[in-house]
Every structure is written in C-alpha cells, then in structure tokens.
Design goal:
Blueprint lengths: L9 H9 L3 H9 L2 H4 L21 H7 L13 H12 L10 E6 L2 H10 L11 E7 L1 H34 L3 E5 L4 H8 L6 E9 L13 H4 L16 H38 L1
Antiparallel strand pairs: 1-2, 2-4, 3-4
Helix pairs in contact: 4-7, 5-7, 6-8
Amino acid sequence: MLHGARLDSAPRVQHWARRLTCSARRAAMAKPFTNSIPHVAIFINDHPYKYFVGSMDAFQAIVKRRTIRKYKQKDIPWDNVVTCLHAGRFAPVAGNVFNMRFIIVKAEAQRKAIAEACMEQYWMQDAPIHIVVVSETLKMERYYGQKGARVYTLHNCAAAAENILLAATALGLGSAWVGAFDEEKIKDICNLPGMVDVQMIITLGYADEHPPVPLKRSIEDICNFGGWHGRVEYPKTGINMWSPYVARIVDETKKAVKKGAKKAHQKAREMVKGKGS
C-alpha cells in the first residue's frame, strides 16, 4: 500500500515509481514525484492559491456571511463546491492530524431524508448541495487521548466548517451550518461506518433571501485584558513608550484650540460689525 509512503523518502518513492507502467513512468518523469504518483495524492504539496477563485476580501466575507434558509432552484458549478472543500482542507487542525471527511450529498431524495433527520428542517432540502462533516474521532484519540476525541476533533471540524462558509460567501453562495440532527439517521442515510461521528451539516446554494445584519455585542462587552475582570487597559509605566502618543495628543489639542480661537475671533468681529451698523 502506498498510503503509508512518505513523500520526503526518495528511495521509497523511487521504488514505487519503478513499479508503475511505462506510460505512467513517462508521466512521472515530467513532474516531481509529489505530483505524479496518484496513489500518494493524500499528501500533495501543491500551491494552494490555485484552488481559490473568489474575489471577495476575507473581511468582507466574514461580515457578509449569513445563515441562509431559502435557496433558488439553481445548481451550483461543481468548481465552486470543490473550492469550498479546499477551503475546509486548509483549516488549522491539531497536530496536523486531519481526521475529517466531507460527504457531498446531491441526490434530491437523500437531501429530503437529511432534512427530515435534522429535526424536520424541511428548508434544507431546497439547497442543491449538502456537506456532511464527519470525524474519524479515534484517529485523534490515538494521538491526544480523550481530549483529542472530545475537544480537538470538535475544534478541527468547526474550523473547517467556518472556512467552507466563508469560501461560499466569497463565491456568492448562501450557506447554513446545521447542528441539530439525529446522528444515527444521518449515518444510515449516508451509509457511514459506525466508527465515525457526524459533527455538522452545511447547506450550499444560491440565496433566495437577504437576511439583515443581526445584532452583535460590542467589542467593549466581549473584550477583557489579562483576566475575566480586566475591563480597562492601563497605561504603560514608562513614559518613553507613551511619548509619541502624548506628542500626538498635544499637537491635536493645539490645532483644536487654534481652530476654536479663530472661529471665536471671527464671530466677535461679526458681532462688533453688526453693532456698528
């Protein structure tokens, strides 16, 4: 099996390359081994940016992302779906142990069954694509024990899901993160093995609604300094660190005073001129 081969082990790669057919060997000579051996594509180090075709700024995607529950009856280009999957693939994972799988669901009957299993959220069936994010929890447990299974796995899947949502937004697609479902039913619908866990389901499609910006808590309300009760960031003790700041404040104050004095002088002249006339 080539799945255990290391791409940085030249002798081993060459060994498997010799076992390829003549035509495959000629193709392998045209590219580095990391890109030419199909069986070890699990560890490709291609340039990542070629996968992404969106033009939206990252911060725009963050702000514009909405949970969409109404979708147009319009298919999504498959390239866009793959781009979203690549975004999930590049999410940060604990120890670089990628223990996730993305199950793509397109069939209408299967989407209806998933909507039923998601606590009868029937709006889901209108989305042309469902992405069922599942985790191979035992793989993470082997490396990090119970914390890997209970915590790091959830972190990995959540990071990948958010990347998928932002990529969808950048591509002009609507999406929704669904976390309420009957896991056993989802496993049965998607024919999943018992060793994996369903973490979330993402719907993709062209939005047929434009939800307003929801209310968000202010930055002052969610930010603390140094601890739970650290509500104020105190000045640094060294005045030298604050000298540029102090100089700027003094300069702005002088300009404001000068501007105010000029306005007061003009107003006084107008009043004197009015009395004289």
